Amino acid sequence: MIRQNVSARCSVLAILFFICTLTVSHQLLAQEVGQSPPLPTPQTTSPATPQTQAKSPQAPGIDASHPAPVPQAAKDDRIFWALPNLLTVEKSSSLPPLTTGQKFKTVAEGCFDPVEVVFIGVQAGLSQADDADPTYGQGLIGYSKRFGTAYTDAIIGNFGTGAIFPTLLHQDPRYYQMGTGNFFHRFFHAAVRVAITRSDSGKTQLNFSEVLGNGLAAGVSNAYHPGPHTFASSANVWTTQIALDALGYELKEFWPDIHRFLQRGKHKT
User: Fold this and answer.
1) What domain range includes position 8?
2) What separation in angstroms does the CA of 63 have from each of 66, 68, 113, 219?
3) 52, 142, 179, 230: which has the highest count of C-beta atoms within 10 A?
4) What is the pLDDT at residue 52?
5) What pTM was computed for the model?
């Protein structure tokens, strides 16, 4: 059944989240008791000025023909140097809205990223090892069926929550990191993103794109997953997908902290 494919994906993400929680909680607690390295010296300009604000007056000797670059969303700082992280914004409280084309292009880049394909392959392998959906059988044919359905689930869900409904409802599919503050405050901020999001104009809204996008994926999946198809099974897939997205937001929020922690450990060796 569909829920078994979701469980396989949940297992992989849960392992990453467990590592994330241990690493970040240790790092942030160390900062609170003064064990972390001192913060970088603030620049002479206002440190709270977001990258999207107007640039400050030019200093003498600066060539005015080379203006400061236009602020952009965070680059694909891959989570654990592997998983695509295209719709995450770091160190900026607001950005210009994405166009319809940008929303679809960004989601497509994530869906067809080679690492995403490998991730789905691992998920399909776990499902086969657990003999999920026995009607698929075993061997290469059974694996290909599990891979195909899992990949289709991911594509429909990602496009629904990141492109289709954000376009129709004029909502911003990007995740804006807090980046600083109490661990539990940041944890809560990430968790509630499945319920609260921004509109393209920057206003706070209920995240209908998340709810409807995963609802679309759960409903359409009945057309190609083996039965039995019931309302309860579809609701289970829908709620599990939302929970997985909440888990993904936690990884997006705390990955920079994990990255810095691991880099410090690397430099000490």
Assistant:
1) 2-22+92-268
2) 6, 10, 39, 57
3) 142
4) 37
5) 0.70
